[in-house]
Request: fold
Amino acid sequence: MISQTAEYALRAIVLLAHRQGRPCTAQQLSDASNIPVMYLSKILGSLVRDGLVQSQRGPGGGFLLSQEPKDVTMYDVLAVVEPIKHYCECPLSDLGCNAPGPELCPLHRRLQAVGSLLEQSFRETTIADLMAEGAGNLPFCHADATGAPPTSPS
Reply:
């Protein structure tokens, strides 16, 4: 339904939200979320450029959310890494699709409707909502019960 990159971005944002303003390194996020650190670093770079995440350098530095979890939706995160595709005309028209003019054929009309419902759900779901559904635990696997990433080995 969504790409692996999109899921990874959501995992990272949820973990940062659980940190409640305490910076977290890319390695700590990688360890807690089971995301390869190099791949995660690229995702974090996109999230920083878009303003959803801040980066702090130096000792005690790392990444943290730029906004409160209640102010960030799943859509906000996905729009950075994987915008939802909208069909303006049937993508098969060059292959002889019989949809008239710029209209959609039945298949792509249905895909467009499903995409719109999905987008609406993502726009209505905040990161705080995801955290609340987890009842104090992360709403996904690979972290301890406090939601804190494991500390890096010294």
